[in-house]
Amino acid sequence: MKITEHLHNAQGKTLFSFEIVPPEKGVGITDLYKNIDPLMEFKPPFIDVTTSREEYIFLERDGGLMERKITRMRPGTLGICSAIQHKYNVDTVPHVLCGGFTKEETEYLLVDCMYLGIDNVMALRGDAMKGEKYFEATKGGNRYASDLVKQVQNTGKGKYLHQDINCKDESHFCIGVAGYPEKHIEAPSMNYDLEMLKKKVENGADYIVTQMFFDNQKYFDFVKSVREAGIDIPIIPGIKPIATLNHLQLLPQVFKIDLPETLVNEVLKCKNNQQVRQVGVEWAIQQSKELLANQVLVLHFYSMGKSDNIVQIARAVF
Ligand code: FAD
User: Fold this and answer.
1) Which of 269, 207, 214 is nearest to 239 (CA)?
2) 62-120 pLDDT tens trace
3) Most informative mutation of 124, 133, 253 for ligand 1 (most atoms within 8 A of CB)
């Protein structure tokens, strides 16, 4: 079922959902299931599964030579989506990237989605490859998420890259896109970023999921600006509980977000990561309660593969 239908059927009740990251190659899926199992108590109508970009690795060869190879460390997004749909009878949302995929590869992936009964995709540009400063479009791939949204919508209507099979009015896919309450790092201004968000919506995006934020006011301001920009599709807030001391450096660096002074001070008082995890849980509970009071459609959690803290938060909130 499409995410927009889930939202419609909820009739204003706030839903619970979460995002997972595929395990590293060779690890197996058992641990992932162990982390999903306790979250099913909160009846998520959908689960997002991220896609990781390919990266370069260097292999030692005879004579002290190094050989550069390209690989994907966490493949299997679509396989995991399908496995989860079957095991838990819940919709899954594979993340589909511009970076690392030609348009043809994207088309085949979307065809696989149709066969697997996957009705939703999250269309994203992806970041620059590890070690590279700027995002470079893959040869033959999409440049921006808005281009990818267009391709997903066209494919969903039967308008394939090199042939029109059956151009129906309604797209097979419900398409999610990213939104940034604190602006995307590369956008020169918030207004510019909102114009680009609008492009994604004009090209067919059905809903927005936000980057993580730790100050709800940033989310509320973002929603206001998005609406003022004339964008009226649903906006789903993304929440990440801080879990380790090194998140203080890692999260701002990787996700280009700010952490509130009070939260930073609370984390710095902790003697170990167990205490940090608890501070993260309590902060996320406060955030979630306020968002719930403001009738957000979904509380969407970035689980990053570990669910004990998300369970604590969901128990306190739902
Ligand atoms: P875009 O919407 O294309 O925007 C990228 C930048 O280009 C912005 O600065 C925008 O203002 C600008 N821009 C957009 N369109 C145009 C245009 N036509 N002309 C000029 N400038 C333009 N990354 C992963 O690798 N895997 C994942 O699974 C993943 N999941 C994510 C889930 C969520 C909810 C979020 C918020 C992010 C996720 N990301 C993921 C990270 C995302 O790929 C990066 O933030 C990336 O840098 C931008 O992606 P985007 O889809 O927002 O890009």
Assistant:
1) 214
2) 888 998 888 888 999 999 999 999 999 999 999 999 999 999 999 999 999 999 999 99
3) 124
- CATH (domain of 97): 3.20.20.220
The full DSSP string for 183-223 is --TT-SSHHHHHHHHHHHHHTT--EEEEPP-S-HHHHHHHH
Q: Whose CA is nearest to atom 30 of ligand 1?
A: 50
Share of the chain above pLDDT 90, in %: 88
Task: Give the pair of three-digit tokens for residue 242.
Answer: 């801080």
Q: Does the structure show a pLDDT above 90 at 163?
A: no
CB of 160 closer than 6 A to ligand 1? no
State both tokens at 9. 């059927």
Q: Is the pTM of this model over 0.90?
A: yes
CA–centroid distance, 92 to ligand 1, in Å, is 20
Q: Is the CB of 256 under 6 A from ligand 1?
A: no
pLDDT class for 305, splitting at 50, 70, 90? confident
User: What's the number of domains the chain is made of?
Assistant: 1
E strand or H helix at 107? helix 103-116
Nearest CA to ligand 1 atom 25: 126
Residue nearest atom 1 of ligand 1, based on CA coordinates: 145
Ligand 1 centroid to Cα of residue 103, in Å, is 17
Read off the pLDDT of residues 232-258 as tens digits, 9 standing for 90 and up: 999 999 999 999 999 999 999 999 999
Ligand 1 nearest-atom number relative to CA 99: 25
